[in-house]
What does this fold into?
Amino acid sequence: MRYISTRGKAPDLGFDDVLLGGLARDGGLYVPATWPRFTDDEMRAMVGLSYHGLATRIMQRFTNEALGLDELTSIVAQTYAKFGHPAVAPLKQLEGGIWLMELFHGPTLAFKDYAMQILGRLFDQVLKTRGQRATIVGATSGDTGSAAIEACRGREAIDIFILFPKGRVSPVQQRQMTTVDAGNVHAIALDGTFDDCQDMVKALFNDLAFRDRHQLSAVNSINWARLLPQIVYYFWAGLALGAPDRQVAFTVPSGNFGNVFSAYAAEALGLPIAKLVVATNENDILARFFNTGRMEIRDVKPTLSPSMDIQVSSNFERLLFDLHDRDGEATARVLKNFRQSGNFTLFEDKMDRTAKIFEATEVDDLATVKRIAAEYEASGEILDPHSAVGVEASVRARLSGRLGDDVPLVSIATAHPAKFPDAVERATGVRPALPPRLADLMRRKERMSVLANDYATVARFISERTCTNEDAA
Ligand SMILES: *Cc1c(COP(=O)(O)O)cnc(C)c1O
It folds into this structure.
């Protein structure tokens, strides 16, 4: 499988280069050159596979030139063996024809573990094969940083530096980053905001000499290898509920459009998906877009579901590319216009195409809290605020009657309630407990470095703690 850039001007690459490179050199994102479709018979043969067996079967089509089947099989099996539930991604039935797929059984209790845990191992494997090292640098407002640290801890070929805004992440999220005891992990509390952290990371990447010397890599969801493992759980749920002989629908609580793009990819691979419901909080740029055809940036508002407090969804570019019949120049034109004016509008023919598969709903904080309370009362199920945004959107989609009664609707639970205990306690009166393996998290010893928001300080800190490719050679 080769990968092409959404802006049409970067060289096409194999899986290993896409993995290590992240962003394409023309500023675009890499996507598979074609969507390899599974036949109905091939999908029927997947029914009954274990989660890791299914993951290998699906991912193999995308990694086959870069990675042997044995290597992939072993990476995938090791990854999901460590998850906290034997089903890995268990399905539960709620009332009203809605199912909940729990994607919070990984080490840091959010769905990002399902891909990040694979990514860390893939990085290590590919780097070792090439005799190289890499330095992963990232900014986080919470979930991504802890998932990345947990995925890279102790890996021989990687050093990882995660910047978070000092005093501005939740206590659970901070401790998940600062209590990891591994020499290659560096949690940096930057004296600044999340935007300052992001600007700092951008500045490090734009310093080309620094970037090359330390072989900087990114693990945010612009990396195709973050999206690939997420395709698997859509097949997992779909096959469990009757696909390929029955259609299924999904609701995905969305921010950067990474998770729901993986669902779109599953459809492109042949999974019969009747509808994808994009659920947003009050930062509703995606909901407004799907309902009007106009993408327009507004200010970011803090909400109870902070991992979805995003205005510009970086992965949307991948959908835009398909909607423009994979014409990179046309995609680049729309995005350039968007950067300059803060908005763009798609023509009706393109919106008709998106409406065949996508619909979108905005759920505000009040409706989120009410949904957590209602679900607790109805079934005893405790939802985190992100998952509750999804379930509320699912209930509304069911009530609209647009979805056939015979189509199961699977709502994605993206985080464990104990990750956001304050909102959950407010809605239910119950403070959710961390799972046993994390029960002592708040008592573990913290290790972090507090750094000034100053480029030279941060660059020096990283240089002193990494060994460059020249040193290694
Ligand atoms: C990252 C995240 C999301 C949003 O997912 P995207 O792929 O960015 O759309 C939703 N919920 C939780 C808990 C998250 O950590």
Q: What stands out?
A: The chain has a mean pLDDT of 94. The chain has 20 helices and 15 strands. The radius of gyration is 21 Å. The domain at 91-105+227-428 is CATH 3.40.50.1100 (Rossmann fold).
